């Protein structure tokens, strides 16, 4: 049981003696430091115990409430502190938990309820990864309740989510990247107001997320230094409020090809639209919406409607069966590591909170690495020099079709 009163020694000014002190917090949240005016340890421990009993007699028991009311209270307390998407996922996890174990008193929640919830989700054919996310959200809610003294203990603290097998990381090959850009040009020629080729090249060069690209303004582009600044936006006349995931502001490199396309795009862009990739018609519509209604961070997540549908059409036009726009980000990060950047450097450039995220979800084993490993195995079997087989390719070995002028450049 957590102690409400702490006993400590306070030395005198001359440092030759000391006296005992009691530190505690009253019911109103005010901190107190009570001097006992003596140095008798046994007497001080008895006084601390007496004060502890006094406080516990006046401390109210943890609030009793239905699980649904408890979850509703938790959402109100955390609103504005986390991203709207995370809050929505937490809300759905809470609803599923109540549907599983019933709307019982929050003080009655036990470890076995967590185990029952896991089985309930698996029986509904939810993937292990989805169940793990739900458990993560629920554990966070109960942890916050314990920190607020709403609960004596965290009932799901030791609950282990189902193990999730690491999925295959999808990255685009150099030829697929080339085909995507060519298909994007054709898609634009059919009347698309979005510069899809530039959008794809920017993602391959910087590894930016879709939301980061769509909320990039011309003020974020530094043409002289060939960089782009990923920064949050405030709710102003010409821009809407937007927050970066993990609040990680960073500066990323641009390739010469990207800068050239950005210059051409800026010259053709009409005045009044500060965003690089938001079409003028869409920008005007959002501005009209902001003037007539409240524009929240949650609503501002998708400056371009049906984004995935447009990209899938480009992917199919490029002759690629599977793949998402986010795979372009994974391709960029994998290329950075292949070209010699350290995992820590890639983690910082990607804006990840931990290096484990970079390793687990973003770094794929490229085909050329698999080919080199195969060659090494063959050389070892034949008794040849593995070092010679794994030597770095010289200038004559480089592919002329896809030259690389920097670690970030992946396209001709």
From TrEMBL:
Residue ranges constituting the Core-binding (CB) domain according to the UniProt record: 58-146
Highest taxon of source: Bacteria
Keywords carried by this UniProt record: DNA integration, DNA recombination, DNA-binding
InterPro entries to which the protein is assigned, alphabetical: CB, DNA_brk_join_enz, Integrase-like_cat_sf, Integrase_catalytic, Integrase_recombinase_N, SAM-like_dom, Tyrosine_recombinase_XerCD
Occurrences of domain Tyr recombinase (ranges): 167-375
BP GO annotations: DNA integration; DNA recombination
Keyword Ubl conjugation: no
Gene3D superfamilies: 1.10.150.130, Intergrase catalytic core
Skewed-composition ranges (Basic and acidic residues): 376-403
Disordered: annotated segments: 376-412
GO MF terms held by the record: DNA binding
Entry's family note: Belongs to the 'phage' integrase family.
The protein's name in its UniProt record: Tyrosine-type recombinase/integrase
Organism: Anaerobaca lacustris
């Amino acid at each position: 049981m957590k102690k409400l009163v702490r006993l400590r020694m306070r030395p005198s000014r001359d440092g030759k003696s000391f006296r005992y002190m009691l530190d505690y917090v009253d019911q109103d949240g005010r901190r107190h430091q009570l001097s006992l005016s003596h140095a008798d340890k046994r007497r001080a421990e008895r006084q601390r115990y007496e004060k502890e009993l006094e406080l516990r007699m006046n401390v109210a028991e943890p609030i009793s409430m239905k699980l649904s009311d408890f979850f509703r209270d938790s959402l109100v307390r955390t609103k504005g502190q986390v991203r709207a998407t995370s809050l929505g996922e937490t809300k759905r996890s809470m609803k599923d938990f109540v549907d599983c174990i019933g709307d019982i008193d929050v003080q009655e929640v036990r470890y076995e309820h967590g185990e029952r919830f896991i089985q309930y989700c698996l029986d509904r054919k939810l993937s292990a990864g989805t169940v793990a996310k739900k458990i993560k959200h629920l554990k966070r809610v109960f942890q916050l309740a314990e920190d607020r003294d709403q609960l004596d203990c965290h009932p799901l603290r030791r609950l282990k989510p189902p193990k999730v097998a690491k999925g295959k990381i999808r990255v685009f090959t150099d030829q697929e990247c080339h085909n995507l850009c060519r298909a994007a040009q054709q898609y634009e020629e059919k009347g698309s107001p979005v510069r899809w080729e530039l959008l794809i090249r920017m993602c391959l060069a910087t590894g930016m997320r879709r939301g980061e690209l769509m909320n990039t303004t011309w003020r974020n582009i530094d043409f002289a230094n060939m960089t782009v600044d990923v920064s949050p936006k405030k709710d102003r006349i010409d821009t809407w409020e937007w927050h970066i995931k993990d609040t990680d502001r960073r500066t990323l490199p641009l390739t010469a090809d990207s800068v050239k396309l950005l210059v051409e795009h800026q010259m053709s862009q009409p005045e009044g639209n500060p965003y690089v990739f938001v079409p003028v018609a869409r920008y005007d519509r959002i501005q009209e919406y902001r003037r007539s209604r409240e524009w929240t961070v949650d609503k501002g997540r998708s400056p371009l409607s049906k984004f995935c549908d447009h990209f899938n059409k480009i992917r199919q036009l490029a002759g690629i069966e599977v793949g998402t726009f986010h795979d372009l980000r994974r391709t960029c990060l994998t290329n950075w590591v292949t070209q010699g950047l350290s995992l820590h450097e890639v983690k910082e450039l990607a804006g990840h909170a931990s290096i484990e995220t970079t390793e687990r979800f973003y770094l794929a084993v490229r085909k050329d690495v698999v080919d080199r490993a195969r060659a090494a195995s063959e050389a070892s079997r034949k008794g040849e020099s593995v070092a010679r087989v794994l030597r770095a390719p010289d200038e004559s070995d480089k592919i002329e079709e896809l030259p690389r002028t920097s670690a970030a450049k992946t396209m001709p």
